[in-house]
Design brief:
The chain is α/β, with parallel strands linked by helices. It has helices at residues 2-20, 34-37, 40-47, 51-65, 77-90, 94-101, 105-120, 123-126, 134-144, 205-210, 213-219, 250-276, 288-307, 328-334, 349-356; strands spanning 149-159, 179-186, 192-200, 227-229, 240-241.
């Protein structure tokens, strides 16, 4: 009973302090129009997109983020967008981003949430497999002579602060950090074609894929006989190909070489994506319920930047060699090579002949 009275007493003291503390007068800071004051180079460095790309994004979400009133000191929609982009670009505290844009921390928090949700809602338009996949197949084939390939799949961790609560440990990944485990499928041009950004860091890559809509689309034959590639963390199937663990024949070595070089594009995509938006590499200090919109919004912006041919930031060194370096004599002999069958349904002479024939 004493504990109850002590709790009530503490709550009363807190309430009394709140109602007796003088209310602070609002402070209105000067707001710089960075679209006018910065040249293209400085603007892109600070906001990670060109002015043209920013105005394109603005035109897509303008109706969603328009200010409800034209009262004095209203935060204009373009300022809201630039504030959010600055947050993505610097992984700074909201106070710092707010000072940069001339708004309070509370306003900055609300704006980041609003703009992130507005951009994330563009996902169906900018993150999708094209209706005609012929171009994607050709791009992968040009990269490493792998036919029928429409994507490379993998997961990456986006660090967050501890979500707290009884289930907090579900968010702790193998590096003992709290994070989201984000699954993406990408093209040979580093464009994100599919994204799943709702799983905690402790979730296994295969678990995420098993519960994804993409797997159901592949099982249902929506993509016909087309394929995706992944690392050894995934189960090998007729639609998702993984590398051989112990290749011995020329055909198996050739398959692994092409599979790995095709799969490397997803790792390069993560490097480019996180270099453009460093918020994805650092600990996101927003509440866990608001992080998903930030991740998806950054994916949408990444694709828009590629569509508008905006150069990558600090593109990682490419680990794959040109496809022309594949041993032609090995290709010619693949059809006659004896292939073991550790990868049922897939690793057979017919597939290798299709995959690496120079006549493709």
């Amino acid at each position: 009973m004493m504990d109850v009275f002590e709790t009530l007493e503490d709550e009363f003291d807190e309430y009394f302090d709140r109602i007796t503390t003088p209310r602070r007068n609002p402070v209105f800071q000067n707001r710089t129009n960075y679209m006018e004051t910065l040249d293209e180079t400085d603007f892109r460095t600070r906001f990670r997109l060109t002015k043209e790309a920013v105005m394109f994004v603005y035109s897509m979400i303008e109706e969603t983020i328009s200010a409800p009133t034209e009262r004095n000191h209203v935060i204009m929609p373009i300022t809201r967008l630039l504030l959010t982009l600055r947050y993505y670009a610097t992984e700074s505290f909201l106070t710092v981003v707010g000072d940069f844009s001339g708004v309070s921390k509370a306003s900055a928090s609300r704006i980041v949430t609003l703009i992130s949700q507005a951009i994330a809602q563009l996902r169906p338009e900018f993150i999708k497999f094209p209706t005609d996949t012929q171009e994607i197949q050709q791009e992968f084939y040009n990269l490493a002579k792998f036919p029928r390939l429409i994507g490379a799949i993998d997961c990456t961790h986006v660090p967050i602060k501890s979500p707290g609560g009884d289930n907090a440990e579900e968010w702790r990944d193998r590096k003992s950090q709290f994070s989201f485990n984000v699954q993406t499928v990408v093209s040979a041009k580093l464009k994100i074609l599919d994204i799943v950004a709702r799983w905690p860091g402790a979730a296994h890559d295969q678990t995420i894929f098993n519960n994804s809509f993409l797997k159901q689309r592949l099982i249902n034959g929506e993509f016909g006989n087309l394929l995706i590639v992944g690392d050894k963390g995934y189960e090998n199937t007729s639609y998702l190909l993984t590398p051989l663990q112990n290749p011995t024949t020329p055909a198996e070595h050739l398959y692994n070489e092409s599979q790995i070089r095709s799969r490397n594009v997803v790792e390069r995509t993560y490097g480019v994506w996180k270099n453009r938006f460093p918020i994805l590499s650092k600990k996101i200090l927003l509440h866990v319920s608001r992080v998903q919109a930030v991740i998806v919004a950054c994916a949408v912006l990444h694709n828009i930047a590629i569509d508008m041919r905006d150069e990558h930031f600090e593109l990682l060194q490419q680990v794959d060699e040109p496809a022309d370096d594949i041993d032609q004599s090995a290709i010619d002999n693949v059809g006659n090579a004896s292939v073991r069958n550790p990868q049922s349904l897939i690793l057979n002479q017919q597939l290798f002949r299709m995959a690496f024939s120079s006549s493709e």
